[in-house]
Amino acid sequence: MPRRTGKPSYLLSTPDTRRRRVARLAVVVAAVGLAAAFVGGATGYTAGRPDGVESAVADMRKAEAQRDGQQIAELTTTARRLREEISPILSAVRAAPSDSRQPGAEQARQWRQTLLRAAEPFANPPSGTTATNVTRGGLHSAVEQASLAVESYLLAVTGPPAQRAALTELAKRQAAQAAAAWSVAATQLDQVNIDAGHGHQHVYLDSDSGGGAFTPDGAAEGSGR
Which residues contact 202 (CB under 8 A, 6 or more apart)? Predict the structure, then answer.
């Protein structure tokens, strides 16, 4: 049987290698595109999400704000209580005559004990923000100044009669300075309350009029939140 002859090999159908290369290239491009999309999405998510440091800082600030707000509320309560104790003393010292009609030594000693107790809340102050620390320090300084006024007054009523007038006048000036110092601290206390969202809190002494002391503004209590 004669052997069939066929077409020369160069005329035979050959595999379409070009098409296969194009197909493989398309697969590679698609894979690269998916990878890029994944990486881009992950990058966008990571960029939009707060990192550990930012989250920690935000938590610290939130905790500090809560702590400061509590300290301000407690300090305001303390200041209101001390105002009721200190204001009558300073008013009495400033109004006292320099003769036998003035309150005596026993009264002055009672005032001294009252002011010693008034200084106790400031003995171990907590650590707060600068504004709150300044407010607390201002109130403490005012209490200390009031104590000096009472000490001078006690010397006036227990010392030589010849020095009574001079020491009484000194006590009056110190009492006026104590009221002025308190008014500055009270103004700062009002501001930190507003900043903390508590609104206006006017804790001024009754004896604030005159002597260069600050006085409350016209805002209503609790307004300005």
Answer: 186, 190, 216, 217, 221
Q: With contact defined as beta carbons under 8 Å apart, do 114 and 175 qualify?
A: no
Segment 109-156, tens digit of pLDDT: 999 999 999 999 999 999 889 999 999 999 999 999 999 999 999 999
177 and 145 in contact (C-beta within 8 Å)? yes
**pLDDT (tens digit per residue) in 155-182:** 999 999 999 999 999 999 999 999 999 9
- CA distances in angstroms from 100 to 103, 111, 159, 161, listed in the order given: 8, 18, 13, 10
**Helix, strand, coil shares, percent, the chain, to 5:** 75, 0, 25
Decide: 75 and 125 in contact? Cβ < 8 Å: no
Q: How far is CA 179 from CA 12, 40, 141, 205, in A?
A: 114, 65, 11, 7
Report phi then psi at 72, rounded to 5: -65, -45
What whole-number distance in Å separates Cα of residue 23 and Cα of residue 15?
A: 14
Residue 109, CA distances (Å) to 53, 154, 174, 175, 218 in order: 57, 7, 17, 16, 37
Asked if residue 119 lies in contact with residue 144, where contact means CB atoms within 8 angstroms, the answer is yes
**pLDDT at res. 22:** 43
CA pair distance 139, 13, nearest whole angstrom: 103
Q: How far is residue 31's CA from residue 127's CA, in Å, rounded to a whole number? A: 58
In the block, residue with structure tokens 């098409």: 19
Cβ distance 123 to 167 under 8 Å? no
